[in-house]
Amino acid sequence: MNDSVYGIDLGTTYSAIARISDLGAAEVVPNFEGDSTTPSVVYFEGPGSVIVGAEAKRTALSDPDSACLLVKRHMGTEYPQEFRGETYSPEAISAIILKELVNAANNTTGAVIDKVVITVPAYFGVQERESTRQAGVIAGLDVVGIVTEPVAAALSIGARSDQAETIMVYDLGGGTFDTTIMETREGAVEVIAVDGNRKLGGADWDDALVDLIIGKFVAAADLGDEDPRYDEEFMLDLRLEAEDAKKSLSRRESVTLRLSFDGTKAMVEVTREEFEAATRHLLAQTIEISRRTVELGTTKRPQLSIDRVLLVGGSSRMPAVKAALKNELGWEAQDTEFDLAVAKGAAIYGQAAVDEVLRTGDEAAPVDVAADAPGRPFLPGGSASLTVKNALSRSVGIKFARDENDAEGYISFFAHSNDAIPAVPEPITALTLSEGQTSVELGLYEQAGERESEALADNRFLKDAVLALPKPMPRQSPIEIAIRISGEGLVTVTTTDPASGASVDLEASVSVLTEEQVEQETAKVSTLLSRS
Question: Which of 203, 225, 308, 471 is 20 to 30 Å from the Cα of 353, by its Cα?
Answer without folding.
Answer: 308
